[in-house]
Amino acid sequence: MNQPARLTGAQETSLAIAAAVVTANAYYIHPIIGDVADHFGVSHARIGLVPALNQLALAVGIFMLLPLGDRISNRRLTIAFATGQTLSLAIMTLAEGFSLFVLGSTLLGYFTIAPYLLPAYASKRVAPERLGQVTAKLAAGIILGILVARVGAGVVSERYGWRAVYWIATTLMLAVTIALPRLMEGGERSAEGRQSYRDLLLSVFPLVGKHKEVLLSGAIQALNFAQFIAVWLGLALYLTSPQMGYGTDTVGYLAGLAAVSIISTPRLGRWADHVGPRKARTIFAMIQFMGILLLWPLGGSLWGLLIPLIITNLVGPGVDVTGRMTFLALDPAIRTRLTTVYVVIMFIGGGLGSYAGTAAYDAYGWAGTCILLGLCSVTLTALAATARRFGR
Question: Domain of life of the organism in this record (predicted)?
Fold first, then answer.
Protein backbone atom coordinates (compact mmCIF):
# COMPACT_ATOMS: atom_id res chain seq x y z
CA MET A 1 0.00 0.00 0.00
CA ASN A 2 1.32 3.45 -0.91
CA GLN A 3 2.26 5.73 1.92
CA PRO A 4 0.33 9.04 2.21
CA ALA A 5 2.17 12.06 0.85
CA ARG A 6 4.29 14.01 3.34
CA LEU A 7 2.88 17.27 4.62
CA THR A 8 4.45 20.45 3.32
CA GLY A 9 5.46 23.24 5.65
CA ALA A 10 2.46 25.29 4.49
CA GLN A 11 0.10 22.39 5.19
CA GLU A 12 1.54 21.93 8.69
CA THR A 13 1.02 25.63 9.44
CA SER A 14 -2.50 25.59 8.00
CA LEU A 15 -3.41 22.56 10.13
CA ALA A 16 -2.06 24.38 13.19
CA ILE A 17 -4.29 27.38 12.39
CA ALA A 18 -7.27 25.05 11.92
CA ALA A 19 -6.46 23.47 15.30
CA ALA A 20 -6.48 26.95 16.85
CA VAL A 21 -9.93 27.79 15.45
CA VAL A 22 -11.63 24.52 16.40
CA THR A 23 -10.12 24.60 19.90
CA ALA A 24 -10.99 28.22 20.66
CA ASN A 25 -14.74 27.51 20.57
CA ALA A 26 -14.76 25.93 24.04
CA TYR A 27 -13.00 28.91 25.65
CA TYR A 28 -14.95 31.95 24.42
CA ILE A 29 -17.48 31.56 27.22
CA HIS A 30 -14.94 31.91 30.03
CA PRO A 31 -14.39 35.71 30.11
CA ILE A 32 -17.97 36.57 29.03
CA ILE A 33 -19.93 34.15 31.17
CA GLY A 34 -21.26 36.96 33.39
CA ASP A 35 -22.51 38.93 30.38
CA VAL A 36 -24.28 35.84 29.02
CA ALA A 37 -25.91 35.18 32.40
CA ASP A 38 -27.18 38.75 32.57
CA HIS A 39 -28.56 38.59 29.03
CA PHE A 40 -30.58 35.44 29.68
CA GLY A 41 -31.52 36.50 33.21
CA VAL A 42 -30.11 33.40 34.92
CA SER A 43 -28.09 33.08 38.10
CA HIS A 44 -24.34 32.62 38.12
CA ALA A 45 -24.91 29.11 39.45
CA ARG A 46 -27.20 28.21 36.55
CA ILE A 47 -24.93 29.70 33.89
CA GLY A 48 -22.34 27.18 35.08
CA LEU A 49 -24.36 24.59 33.15
CA VAL A 50 -22.89 25.99 29.94
CA PRO A 51 -19.21 25.09 30.47
CA ALA A 52 -20.06 22.07 32.64
CA LEU A 53 -22.23 20.34 30.03
CA ASN A 54 -19.83 21.38 27.28
CA GLN A 55 -16.94 19.61 29.01
CA LEU A 56 -19.04 16.56 29.88
CA ALA A 57 -20.23 16.28 26.29
CA LEU A 58 -16.64 16.66 25.11
CA ALA A 59 -15.51 13.72 27.23
CA VAL A 60 -18.42 11.60 25.95
CA GLY A 61 -17.74 12.65 22.37
CA ILE A 62 -14.06 11.80 22.63
CA PHE A 63 -14.81 8.34 23.96
CA MET A 64 -17.64 7.60 21.54
CA LEU A 65 -16.37 9.26 18.37
CA LEU A 66 -12.59 9.54 18.45
CA PRO A 67 -11.97 5.76 18.10
CA LEU A 68 -13.63 5.98 14.70
CA GLY A 69 -10.38 7.57 13.55
CA ASP A 70 -8.86 4.08 13.39
CA ARG A 71 -11.71 2.85 11.16
CA ILE A 72 -12.68 5.89 9.06
CA SER A 73 -10.19 8.31 7.54
CA ASN A 74 -9.15 11.14 9.84
CA ARG A 75 -9.88 13.53 6.97
CA ARG A 76 -13.55 12.54 6.64
CA LEU A 77 -14.11 12.59 10.39
CA THR A 78 -12.44 15.97 10.86
CA ILE A 79 -14.59 17.55 8.15
CA ALA A 80 -17.76 15.99 9.59
CA PHE A 81 -17.05 17.09 13.16
CA ALA A 82 -16.02 20.60 12.06
CA THR A 83 -19.39 20.86 10.32
CA GLY A 84 -21.08 19.82 13.57
CA GLN A 85 -19.16 22.50 15.47
CA THR A 86 -20.19 25.16 12.94
CA LEU A 87 -23.87 24.26 13.27
CA SER A 88 -23.62 24.17 17.07
CA LEU A 89 -22.05 27.62 17.16
CA ALA A 90 -24.80 28.92 14.89
CA ILE A 91 -27.37 27.66 17.42
CA MET A 92 -25.57 29.49 20.23
CA THR A 93 -25.26 32.66 18.15
CA LEU A 94 -28.94 32.80 17.24
CA ALA A 95 -30.42 31.39 20.47
CA GLU A 96 -33.08 33.61 22.04
CA GLY A 97 -33.63 31.34 25.05
CA PHE A 98 -31.19 29.99 27.60
CA SER A 99 -32.15 26.33 27.05
CA LEU A 100 -31.34 26.55 23.35
CA PHE A 101 -28.03 28.25 24.13
CA VAL A 102 -27.13 25.42 26.54
CA LEU A 103 -28.11 22.86 23.90
CA GLY A 104 -25.85 24.51 21.34
CA SER A 105 -22.95 24.60 23.79
CA THR A 106 -23.47 20.94 24.72
CA LEU A 107 -23.53 19.87 21.07
CA LEU A 108 -20.43 22.00 20.48
CA GLY A 109 -18.59 20.03 23.15
CA TYR A 110 -19.73 16.71 21.69
CA PHE A 111 -18.38 17.58 18.24
CA THR A 112 -15.09 19.11 19.40
CA ILE A 113 -13.05 16.13 18.24
CA ALA A 114 -10.94 17.72 15.49
CA PRO A 115 -8.14 18.94 17.81
CA TYR A 116 -7.47 15.31 18.72
CA LEU A 117 -7.79 13.89 15.21
CA LEU A 118 -5.37 16.35 13.63
CA PRO A 119 -2.22 15.09 15.45
CA ALA A 120 -3.05 11.50 14.45
CA TYR A 121 -3.63 12.63 10.84
CA ALA A 122 -0.35 14.55 10.77
CA SER A 123 1.63 11.74 12.45
CA LYS A 124 0.95 9.50 9.42
CA ARG A 125 2.36 12.12 7.04
CA VAL A 126 5.63 13.22 8.63
CA ALA A 127 9.03 11.57 8.90
CA PRO A 128 9.53 9.83 12.29
CA GLU A 129 12.38 12.17 13.20
CA ARG A 130 10.04 15.17 12.80
CA LEU A 131 7.13 13.75 14.82
CA GLY A 132 7.85 15.83 17.91
CA GLN A 133 8.33 19.02 15.90
CA VAL A 134 5.07 18.69 13.99
CA THR A 135 3.09 17.52 17.05
CA ALA A 136 4.44 20.57 18.88
CA LYS A 137 3.42 22.86 16.02
CA LEU A 138 -0.16 21.60 16.26
CA ALA A 139 -0.02 21.98 20.05
CA ALA A 140 1.14 25.57 19.55
CA GLY A 141 -1.92 26.13 17.35
CA ILE A 142 -4.16 24.84 20.12
CA ILE A 143 -2.45 27.16 22.60
CA LEU A 144 -2.98 30.06 20.19
CA GLY A 145 -6.69 29.23 19.98
CA ILE A 146 -7.02 29.19 23.76
CA LEU A 147 -5.08 32.45 24.02
CA VAL A 148 -7.13 34.32 21.42
CA ALA A 149 -10.40 33.02 22.88
CA ARG A 150 -9.64 34.00 26.46
CA VAL A 151 -8.14 37.39 25.70
CA GLY A 152 -10.07 38.36 22.58
CA ALA A 153 -13.57 37.39 23.71
CA GLY A 154 -13.47 39.82 26.61
CA VAL A 155 -12.28 42.68 24.41
CA VAL A 156 -14.89 42.03 21.68
CA SER A 157 -17.70 41.61 24.20
CA GLU A 158 -16.78 44.85 25.96
CA ARG A 159 -17.04 46.80 22.71
CA TYR A 160 -19.70 45.01 20.69
CA GLY A 161 -21.55 42.68 23.06
CA TRP A 162 -21.15 38.98 23.81
CA ARG A 163 -23.16 37.80 20.80
CA ALA A 164 -20.60 39.38 18.46
CA VAL A 165 -18.08 36.90 19.87
CA TYR A 166 -20.15 33.99 18.60
CA TRP A 167 -20.83 35.63 15.23
CA ILE A 168 -17.06 35.83 14.74
CA ALA A 169 -16.57 32.27 16.01
CA THR A 170 -19.23 30.90 13.65
CA THR A 171 -17.70 32.75 10.70
CA LEU A 172 -14.23 31.40 11.47
CA MET A 173 -15.56 27.85 11.82
CA LEU A 174 -17.44 28.14 8.53
CA ALA A 175 -14.20 29.23 6.81
CA VAL A 176 -12.26 26.32 8.32
CA THR A 177 -14.97 23.81 7.40
CA ILE A 178 -14.88 24.99 3.78
CA ALA A 179 -11.06 24.89 3.69
CA LEU A 180 -10.52 21.47 5.27
CA PRO A 181 -11.41 19.33 2.20
CA ARG A 182 -8.68 21.11 0.22
CA LEU A 183 -6.21 21.28 3.09
CA MET A 184 -6.40 17.64 4.16
CA GLU A 185 -5.41 15.11 1.53
CA GLY A 186 -7.01 11.68 1.45
CA GLY A 187 -5.28 8.39 0.90
CA GLU A 188 -4.96 6.86 4.36
CA ARG A 189 -6.59 3.53 5.06
CA SER A 190 -6.87 1.76 8.36
CA ALA A 191 -5.64 -1.78 8.74
CA GLU A 192 -8.82 -2.47 10.71
CA GLY A 193 -11.26 -0.78 8.34
CA ARG A 194 -13.74 -3.68 8.43
CA GLN A 195 -13.99 -3.83 12.21
CA SER A 196 -17.48 -3.04 13.53
CA TYR A 197 -17.97 0.10 15.58
CA ARG A 198 -18.84 -1.94 18.68
CA ASP A 199 -15.74 -4.08 18.35
CA LEU A 200 -13.67 -1.00 17.61
CA LEU A 201 -14.90 0.72 20.77
CA LEU A 202 -14.38 -2.36 22.91
CA SER A 203 -10.93 -2.87 21.38
CA VAL A 204 -9.74 0.20 23.29
CA PHE A 205 -9.53 -1.83 26.50
CA PRO A 206 -7.24 -4.66 25.31
CA LEU A 207 -5.10 -2.06 23.53
CA VAL A 208 -4.56 -0.30 26.84
CA GLY A 209 -3.62 -3.65 28.34
CA LYS A 210 -0.91 -4.07 25.72
CA HIS A 211 0.27 -0.45 25.95
CA LYS A 212 -0.03 0.39 29.64
CA GLU A 213 2.24 3.40 29.30
CA VAL A 214 -0.63 5.36 27.76
CA LEU A 215 -2.37 5.22 31.16
CA LEU A 216 0.71 6.67 32.85
CA SER A 217 1.12 9.34 30.18
CA GLY A 218 -2.58 10.15 30.54
CA ALA A 219 -2.28 10.42 34.34
CA ILE A 220 0.70 12.76 34.01
CA GLN A 221 -1.19 14.98 31.57
CA ALA A 222 -4.30 14.84 33.78
CA LEU A 223 -2.27 16.37 36.59
CA ASN A 224 -0.74 18.85 34.15
CA PHE A 225 -4.16 19.94 32.85
CA ALA A 226 -5.59 20.05 36.39
CA GLN A 227 -2.78 22.42 37.38
CA PHE A 228 -3.43 24.64 34.37
CA ILE A 229 -7.13 25.05 35.23
CA ALA A 230 -6.63 25.32 39.00
CA VAL A 231 -4.01 28.04 38.74
CA TRP A 232 -6.16 30.24 36.48
CA LEU A 233 -9.33 29.72 38.50
CA GLY A 234 -7.40 30.49 41.66
CA LEU A 235 -5.83 33.58 40.08
CA ALA A 236 -9.22 34.84 38.89
CA LEU A 237 -10.58 34.61 42.44
CA TYR A 238 -7.41 35.90 44.09
CA LEU A 239 -6.69 38.90 41.88
CA THR A 240 -10.29 40.14 42.00
CA SER A 241 -10.55 39.69 45.77
CA PRO A 242 -10.50 42.70 48.14
CA GLN A 243 -7.00 41.64 49.12
CA MET A 244 -5.59 42.32 45.63
CA GLY A 245 -8.30 44.58 44.18
CA TYR A 246 -7.76 44.01 40.46
CA GLY A 247 -10.46 43.71 37.80
CA THR A 248 -11.25 40.76 35.58
CA ASP A 249 -9.49 42.51 32.69
CA THR A 250 -6.22 42.01 34.55
CA VAL A 251 -6.84 38.26 34.63
CA GLY A 252 -7.47 38.34 30.90
CA TYR A 253 -4.27 40.22 30.22
CA LEU A 254 -2.32 37.72 32.32
CA ALA A 255 -3.81 34.93 30.20
CA GLY A 256 -1.87 36.50 27.34
CA LEU A 257 1.28 35.03 28.91
CA ALA A 258 0.32 31.80 27.13
CA ALA A 259 1.84 33.45 24.06
CA VAL A 260 5.28 32.37 25.27
CA SER A 261 4.15 28.76 24.78
CA ILE A 262 3.59 29.38 21.07
CA ILE A 263 7.26 30.23 20.74
CA SER A 264 8.69 27.67 23.16
CA THR A 265 6.60 24.57 22.43
CA PRO A 266 7.88 23.81 18.87
CA ARG A 267 11.46 24.24 20.10
CA LEU A 268 10.85 21.96 23.06
CA GLY A 269 9.34 19.40 20.68
CA ARG A 270 12.44 19.47 18.46
CA TRP A 271 14.63 19.05 21.53
CA ALA A 272 12.50 16.11 22.68
CA ASP A 273 13.08 14.48 19.26
CA HIS A 274 16.80 14.44 20.11
CA VAL A 275 16.85 13.45 23.78
CA GLY A 276 13.71 11.29 23.86
CA PRO A 277 10.21 12.17 25.11
CA ARG A 278 10.46 10.55 28.53
CA LYS A 279 13.69 12.28 29.54
CA ALA A 280 12.44 15.60 28.17
CA ARG A 281 9.12 15.25 30.04
CA THR A 282 10.92 14.67 33.34
CA ILE A 283 13.03 17.79 32.86
CA PHE A 284 9.97 19.86 31.90
CA ALA A 285 8.14 18.60 34.99
CA MET A 286 11.04 19.56 37.26
CA ILE A 287 11.23 23.07 35.80
CA GLN A 288 7.46 23.45 36.13
CA PHE A 289 7.62 22.32 39.77
CA MET A 290 10.20 25.03 40.51
CA GLY A 291 7.92 27.61 38.92
CA ILE A 292 4.91 26.47 40.95
CA LEU A 293 6.93 26.69 44.17
CA LEU A 294 7.41 30.40 43.43
CA LEU A 295 3.68 31.14 43.28
CA TRP A 296 3.34 31.49 47.06
CA PRO A 297 6.39 33.70 47.92
CA LEU A 298 5.82 35.93 44.88
CA GLY A 299 2.01 35.92 45.08
CA GLY A 300 1.73 39.23 46.89
CA SER A 301 2.76 41.17 43.80
CA LEU A 302 1.27 41.16 40.31
CA TRP A 303 4.71 41.68 38.83
CA GLY A 304 6.11 38.93 41.01
CA LEU A 305 3.48 36.50 39.75
CA LEU A 306 4.75 37.02 36.21
CA ILE A 307 7.87 34.97 36.97
CA PRO A 308 6.22 31.64 37.95
CA LEU A 309 3.49 32.10 35.33
CA ILE A 310 6.04 32.57 32.56
CA ILE A 311 8.00 29.52 33.74
CA THR A 312 4.94 27.27 33.86
CA ASN A 313 3.64 28.52 30.51
CA LEU A 314 7.03 27.88 28.91
CA VAL A 315 7.27 24.19 29.81
CA GLY A 316 3.70 23.09 30.67
CA PRO A 317 2.67 22.35 27.06
CA GLY A 318 5.92 20.43 26.62
CA VAL A 319 4.65 17.88 29.15
CA ASP A 320 1.63 17.28 26.91
CA VAL A 321 3.67 17.08 23.69
CA THR A 322 6.13 14.56 25.12
CA GLY A 323 3.27 12.53 26.60
CA ARG A 324 1.68 12.19 23.16
CA MET A 325 5.03 11.28 21.62
CA THR A 326 5.19 8.15 23.81
CA PHE A 327 2.35 6.54 21.83
CA LEU A 328 2.08 8.46 18.54
CA ALA A 329 5.20 6.62 17.36
CA LEU A 330 3.36 3.27 17.62
CA ASP A 331 1.38 1.44 14.90
CA PRO A 332 -0.69 4.02 12.92
CA ALA A 333 -3.71 1.70 13.09
CA ILE A 334 -4.04 2.15 16.88
CA ARG A 335 -2.86 5.72 17.44
CA THR A 336 -6.31 7.31 17.42
CA ARG A 337 -7.71 4.90 20.01
CA LEU A 338 -4.67 5.40 22.25
CA THR A 339 -5.19 9.15 21.83
CA THR A 340 -8.79 8.59 22.98
CA VAL A 341 -7.63 7.03 26.24
CA TYR A 342 -5.05 9.75 26.79
CA VAL A 343 -7.43 12.66 26.16
CA VAL A 344 -10.31 11.21 28.22
CA ILE A 345 -7.98 10.81 31.19
CA MET A 346 -6.72 14.36 30.61
CA PHE A 347 -10.24 15.80 30.77
CA ILE A 348 -11.01 13.82 33.92
CA GLY A 349 -8.01 15.59 35.42
CA GLY A 350 -9.29 18.91 34.11
CA GLY A 351 -12.68 18.31 35.73
CA LEU A 352 -11.10 17.42 39.06
CA GLY A 353 -8.81 20.43 38.79
CA SER A 354 -11.79 22.71 38.17
CA TYR A 355 -13.50 21.54 41.34
CA ALA A 356 -10.40 21.23 43.51
CA GLY A 357 -9.03 24.59 42.42
CA THR A 358 -12.10 26.56 43.47
CA ALA A 359 -12.62 24.44 46.62
CA ALA A 360 -9.03 24.95 47.76
CA TYR A 361 -9.27 28.70 47.30
CA ASP A 362 -12.67 28.86 49.00
CA ALA A 363 -11.33 26.99 52.03
CA TYR A 364 -7.82 28.40 52.40
CA GLY A 365 -7.43 31.29 49.98
CA TRP A 366 -4.38 31.70 47.74
CA ALA A 367 -2.30 29.59 50.15
CA GLY A 368 -4.70 26.68 49.59
CA THR A 369 -4.37 27.05 45.82
CA CYS A 370 -0.58 27.03 46.07
CA ILE A 371 -0.59 23.94 48.31
CA LEU A 372 -2.88 22.10 45.88
CA LEU A 373 -0.67 23.04 42.93
CA GLY A 374 2.45 21.96 44.78
CA LEU A 375 0.96 18.54 45.57
CA CYS A 376 -0.12 18.07 41.95
CA SER A 377 3.26 19.12 40.62
CA VAL A 378 5.36 16.94 42.90
CA THR A 379 3.17 13.94 42.03
CA LEU A 380 3.46 14.73 38.32
CA THR A 381 7.25 14.97 38.56
CA ALA A 382 7.49 11.66 40.41
CA LEU A 383 5.31 9.93 37.80
CA ALA A 384 7.37 11.41 34.95
CA ALA A 385 10.56 10.12 36.55
CA THR A 386 8.97 6.69 37.00
CA ALA A 387 7.84 6.61 33.37
CA ARG A 388 11.43 6.86 32.12
CA ARG A 389 11.83 3.12 32.65
CA PHE A 390 9.45 2.51 29.73
CA GLY A 391 12.01 4.02 27.39
CA ARG A 392 14.83 1.73 28.43
Answer: Bacteria
